[in-house]
Specification:
Layout lengths: L1 H11 L4 H8 L3 H9 L6 H11 L3 H4 L9 E3 L10 H25 L13 E2 L4 H11 L11 H6 L4 E5 L8 E6 L2 E7 L4 H16 E2 L6 H16 L2 H8 L10 H8 L3 H10 L5 H13 L2 H4 L11 H11 L5 H8 L3 H8 L3 H5 L2
Parallel strand pairs: 2-6, 3-5
Antiparallel strand pairs: 1-4, 4-5
Amino acid sequence: MFSKNLKYYRLKKALSKKQLAERIHVSPMAITNYENGTRKPNMDILQKMSKELGIRVSDFLAIRNENLVFRHGEFRKNAALTIAQQDYVRESVEEYFNRYMTIVEILGGDILPDAPHCHGISLSDDVEKDAMMLRKHLYIASDGPLDNLVEILENKGILIFVFKIENDKFSGMNGFVNDRPYIALNMEMSPERNRSTIAHELAHLMFIWPEEMNDKDIEDRATAISGAFLLPKSDAERELGIHRTKVSKDMVYVAKEYGVSMLLLVKRAQVLGIISDHVAKDFYVAASQAGWRKKEPVRIAKELPTFFEQLVFRAINENEISVQKGAELLKMPFDEVTSRCCKNEDELWSM
């Protein structure tokens, strides 16, 4: 669908309608009409737009699945995103999952695992209990570290999308594609922050949130649940002990094992009474002075979704689609797709 593709690529390039219009010498209203689908540009204008946006003319013509129904979660009030950036997030999600669902339809819809029932857990009066209920709801062990959380959720039918947006205030959002839950993450965030964001968005997706609960209380509760989900109380007490007099360097090993930041680890220790408020405050001051509030050192590997690529490579090798089609779906160079999924017999037998 040309209109959707134009809007997506314009927003990706961070251009306003007026800016794009000025660069190709048309009126802003013309761009509005193109994006609304009420007018179509001629080839000369198409070529000018593709040049300004750094894409091919054929990218404008990529087919969109009009049967996909998206329900996007609301942006948090402190997300500090402009209207254009919010539009870009939504358009990016829709463009990505349009390609994703294309291969799902080609291979058959039952290739995706059944997703967990959303908004099916009632809140208790205890955050630790809520976190355990969330683990149980997802058929995850009640304790222990969660290795590669992205992979775990993909195998449970939750769609994950990681993309780049130049705004460090945006960490992620959730929503639904044809009633299947998705979580979108900012690639620019640290792996630890992405894991915390995933757990936070899971809380939004899986719990029943009372209508009378205000937004701040919902966010605070989801954040508390996410911390307890990643580092359960029993694990924290076993790994750290039930009482500590200071935050020490050995705690970094626990943060790394559970895939959380030191800031989150110390917060959990404070909440659980393992360290005092005074000890925690001293750490927060030192962390701020070291710049950790904005950029704490990364200690774990980045977790990225792989299921989409896996499905495309499978379809290529089963001759369901061509290598060229696979490259278009993955937005990956033809040679890279060939090298990653198409081995000849000599290479195979030499492995």
